[in-house]
Amino acid sequence: MIINKFFAAFSQLISKTSQVAKQSLTKQNLIQSEPMRLSKYLAQTSVCSRREAEKMIESGMILVDGKKVDSNIPVTSENKIQVFTKNGERMPVKQSTKVWIFYKPIGMICSHNDPFKRPSFYDFAKLRLKTDQHIISVGRLDFNSEGLIVVTNDGELARCMELPETKLQRIYRVRVYGTFTEEKLKKIRNGLTIAGVNYGPYWVNVENRQSRNTWLIMRLESGKNREIRKVMQKFDLRVNRLIRQSYGPYKLMGLKPGDFYEAQIEPEIKRKLYLQARKKLQNVQEQIQLEQTKLNIKALDEQSKNEKQIEKQENDQVQKKNLIVNKFKKVQQKTA
C-alpha cells in the first residue's frame, strides 16, 4: 500500500513538473517539446523569418545533429541545430530590404521627434527617396556633423550593423581647433576615461596641419554619443568639422551633401547577419538546456521531499502501531 502511494505521488510529481516545464518554455518564448517544422523552430527562436529559414535550408546552411538537411524536417529541442556555412555570404535577407547611402548635410538632426523643431534627416531622406515607408539610420550623426549615413527599411539589419561586437569600422575626417601636439596625439591613441566611461584606444593619424586647425583621420569600431567631440574637448581641442567617410563596406563614393545612392547588401554585412543568427540560435539552445537542467533539479528536489514525507508517514505509522501493541500488552498483563 505504501509503495502504491509512493508511485501515485511520484506520478503526480512528474505530471506537475511537465506542466511547469511547458509553462516556463512558453513564458520565455522558447521551443516547445513537441516536434515542429525546422522553419518554424528557427522563426520561434527569432533567428529569422520562416521564409528566410526555408531559403537557408535550401542553401544547405542548416545542420541538424551534425548533418546537413535539404528539407523542412520536424525537429524538437532535443535536436542540435546549427546555422553553418564557410563564409556566411549565402545568408538570405528579406526581398523587401533596401539600403541607401546618404551624405547627411550639417544642420539636420537624426531624430523623428525633436522638441526644438530642427530639420529632421528622416524627413529629408523620405523626401529624397519619395517614400512614406518607415526608414532607419544605422547609427547617428549629431546636428553639426556631416557625412555618410546608412539608411535601411530593415530593423534587423540596422541593429546588426550597430552592435559593437560586429566591429564595423567607421572612418572620420576630423578638423580640430587648438594646439595639437605629439603628446596629445599619443594620449588620444591610448584612449582615456571621461566621467567613468572608457573611450578608445583609437587609430588616429594627422592628415594636415594648419596654423590653428589640424585635420585628423580617425577609425572607430563603435560609436558613443558625441564621442569624438568629447575626447577632443578633454585635450582643449574644439571640433569645428566632422565628416564620416565610411561605415563598414559602405563609402561616400564622391557624394555631395544631400546626395544619396541605393547600395547592395554587401557580403560582409551578410556574414555579420549570419554570425548574429548563429549566435541567437546558440543562445536559445543554451537557454533551453539551462531551463531543462533547472526543471530536472527541481523535480529531484520535489522527489526527495516526497520520499522524506513518505518515510515520515511510514515511521509515524510504525510508532502508532507500536503504541497500540504496547497498550494491548499492558491490558493483557492487567487482566492476567
From TrEMBL:
InterPro entries: PsdUridine_s_RsuA/RluB/E/F_cat, PsdUridine_synth_cat_dom_sf, PsdUridine_synth_RsuA/RluA, PsdUridine_synth_RsuA/RluB/E/F, PsdUridine_synth_RsuA/RluB_CS, RsuA_PseudoU_synthase, S4_RNA-bd, S4_RNA-bd_sf. Residues 36-98 form the RNA-binding S4 domain. GO terms for molecular function: pseudouridine synthase activity; RNA binding. Keywords: Coiled coil, Isomerase, RNA-binding. It comes from the Eukaryota. Pfam families: PseudoU_synth_2 (PF00849), S4 (PF01479). GO terms for biological process: pseudouridine synthesis; rRNA processing. Residues 274-310 form a coiled coil. Belongs to the pseudouridine synthase RsuA family. This is RNA-binding S4 domain-containing protein.
